[in-house]
Amino acid sequence: EPEVTQTPSHQVTQMGQEVILRCVPISNHLYFYWYRQILGQKVEFLVSFYNNEISEKSEIFDDQFSVERPDGSNFTLKIRSTKLEDSAMYFCASSEALLSSGSRETQYFGPGTRLLVL
Amino acid sequence: AQKITQTQPGMFVQEKEAVTLDCTYDTSDPSYGLFWYKQPSSGEMIFLIYQGSYDQQNATEGRYSLNFQKARKSANLVISASQLGDSAMYFCAMRSYGGSQGNLIFGKGTKLSVKP
Q: Which of the two ends of chain A, N or C, has the fewest CB atoms closer than 10 A to its terminal CB?
């Protein structure tokens, strides 16, 4: 069964360093997302991406964050200068369709990248 | 404002019994989708079940069913015949389309523990 994959599974970095989190969405999906979950808290939306551009972003997704689809399969999240409060689990998700499409709008999540900023 | 509320931080259930996890939602949009995800201790988010706001019947997926009461704005997850492997965090989430691209809004989750 197709699945979303993410690398690395864990990343430890020093404050101020740049990190790139990588995701391979399900191949026939067109809509891509990043979410984060700070330890013990609920999952929060960061950004959605469609047709090679950002569709929507949350207040969390400030100028330190960027997303890119560098080729036909990868979808990346870059944090330019990490802060301690960026420590979290980062989830990539993808969906086949978007609005009022029944179950085709379901977002499937990758296993996550656990980021620790020291 | 859109909101998901899960009022049960933790639940216990005996193995082989059924359990209901509560979820209420708030949206002014007539078109929305409701989802449940399972998060085991390993951390991944596993999709369980989907309910569309215009669906006439309650969704079912194997041992999972969704008790959808639109007038009360509730979407409770029912797990029948609980298994030890069902022990996990469970998140209710919603996509609502009024002026939005439909990102998911999550509740705080319910931690389910299945006792042998």
A: N
pLDDT tops 70 at residue A100: no
Closest CA to A7 of A82, A113, A94, A91: A113
Answer whether A50 sits within 8 Å of B101, measured CB to CB: yes
What does the pLDDT read at residue A101?
65
For B68-81, the pLDDT digits (tens) are 999 999 999 999 99
Terminal Cα distance for chain A, rounded = 37
Please state, in angstroms and rounded to a whole number, the distance separating the CA atoms of residues B59 and A24: 29
Which is nearest to A24 in space by CA: A45, A42, A7, A43? Answer: A7
- Residues in chain A within 8 Å Cβ distance of B95: 105
What per-residue confidence (pLDDT) applies to B99? 53
Q: Which of chain B's residues have a Cβ under 8 Å away from the Cβ of A11?
A: none
Instruction: Give B74's Cβ-side CA count (13 Å radius).
Output: 12
| Residue A60 phi, psi dihedral angles, 5° rounding | -65, -35
